[in-house]
Amino acid sequence: MINNEEFQDEIGNNHISTNAKNPVREDAFAITDEEKIDKIKKDVENILLTLGMDLTDDSMKGTPHRVAKMFVKEIFGGLNPDKKPKASTFENNYKYGEMLVEKNITLYSTCEHHLLPIIGRAHVAYISSGRVIGLSKMNRIVEHYAKRPQVQERLTMQIVQELQQALGTEDVACVIDAKHLCVNSRGIKDIESSTVTSEFGGKFKDPQTKREFLDYIKLDTKF
Questions:
Q1: N or C: which end of the chain has fewer CB within 10 A?
Q2: Is 144 a catalytic residue?
């Protein structure tokens, strides 16, 4: 790990990941959610006080607790492996052998470099090799991996890998098109740009199959 502050700023400002897995410590779940909320509440309170906010004001009084609860229970809830959705699969009894696409899955995540929102849509597809998965489970898998400090490339890969494991096939693909508020609202402040990432496994590496998937989701980007 490089401790050079200038280098770390460059990594973060350019949104580069140095870890293919979410960098979570081994003792991350040694304390309860309520204990985490209590500790984070104090930290948020200190940040706001340092910024000069009056926490006796009715509007601000509950902010530290609200933020702490939001961090633990909501926007970073996907860090907890106990909250991972059960990816129930079923026998493909009707022998459907074509591509199944779940597109326009609403995605809310958080950039791990500036802790600002990533907002966009995920498009996921698979070709059954004998098992099928409930449609809502695909949405829940996207949501679970999005609810943690993330980089978009890693998130895209995690969604594909989770579905590959659940379905027992390499034939899974995911494309994410999202806006990063760390780009849109600070730094370069480009409100129009979005980031597109993709991960293609198995048959989706074939140009014709890949093109069919991209046609389904109406994405013109060339990969």
A1: N
A2: no
